[in-house]
Design a protein that fits this description.
This protein is mainly β. It is 8% helix and 37% strand. The chain contains one helix and 19 strands. It has a five-stranded mixed β-sheet, with no helix packed on it. Strands 11-19-13-17-15 form a five-stranded antiparallel β-sheet, with no helix packed on it. The protein is elongated and about 70 Å long.
């Protein structure tokens, strides 16, 4: 009986070892578990302003986590705008009043455990400009911030060489180094190719600008392409004194822009 007992004991030990190996996920690949998803990151940290009566469309973007990601709102968007919870798109047409709405977007992924992040944002809404602003006399007064606008068509027949253009008035109370940045958006009706020029009240171009990459403010204040090969992103920096009034001219030389061809204008540094 003793030899049989030893054989039985050995069989039981072997079975236990095999069971233990199977329980550890043995065979094949060592380690076994799935890799955790990358951390969730909200990449949108600011949003441009909007204009009453002008369609608005911007996307809050995020990366990482386990798709699909969902977007939810804490607080209130400006009246007329809504958030698409599946895509993070904020869209609509602002109805007013003027002012800045502060809110937060919460992004959550579909993983277990779930990842979520919150990003504070704001959108400034400005009033609709009264009538056309295609001359110095009808210029729209603006300050620091981001604004969405549509180009004013020239109104001239195609046989007349006349650009589509808008004018914006900037007034300083102290010496300022002002940055004017334009980027065009395709609203589905084609995007304009904007050029910016900074002039005085007589329409004379200033010569106190720094073009992209320059450190001195001695260049003529006109610019087309901030980045070579990108035709819709002019940028200028201009230095002016206290109590100055300058005018930013945004124009599209094609002369065939539609009134629903939008662009964004970003102003900073006004004191």
């Amino acid at each position: 009986m003793r030899p049989r007992s030893r054989i039985a004991a050995r069989k039981l030990a072997a079975a236990a070892i095999l069971a233990l190996a199977a329980g550890c996920g043995g065979g094949g690949g060592g380690g076994g578990g799935a890799q955790p998803p990358p951390p969730l990151v909200i990449t949108t940290t600011t949003l441009p302003g909007g204009t009453i009566g002008v369609p608005y469309n911007r996307t809050v973007t995020a990366t990482g986590g386990t798709p699909p990601r969902t977007f939810s709102l804490m607080g209130s968007l400006p009246a007329g705008l809504t958030l698409a919870t599946a895509t993070g798109v904020i869209s609509g047409t602002p109805t007013g009043p003027e002012g800045t709405s502060a809110f937060a977007i919460v992004v959550a992924d579909a993983g277990t455990p779930q990842q979520s992040l919150t990003q504070g944002l704001s959108i400034a809404i400005s009033a609709t400009s009264l009538g056309r602003n295609d001359s110095i006399a009808t210029a729209t007064t603006i300050g620091n911030g981001g604004f969405t606008a549509s180009i004013s068509p020239s109104g001239d027949p195609n046989t007349v060489f006349s650009p589509d253009q808008d004018f914006y008035r900037i007034v300083t109370t102290a010496a300022s180094t002002i940055t004017v940045d334009i980027d065009s958006t395709d609203s589905g009706n084609g995007a304009i190719d904007p050029v910016i020029e900074i002039v005085n009240s007589s329409g004379t171009r200033l010569n106190t600008c720094a073009l992209p990459g320059e450190t001195t403010f001695t260049s003529p204040c006109v610019h087309d392409d901030e980045e070579l090969g990108v035709l819709r992103d002019p940028l200028l920096r201009v230095q002016v004194g206290a109590g100055a009034t300058i005018f930013v001219r945004v124009l599209d030389w094609r002369g065939d822009a539609r009134p629903d061809a939008f662009y964004n204008i970003h102003i900073s540094g006004v004191n």
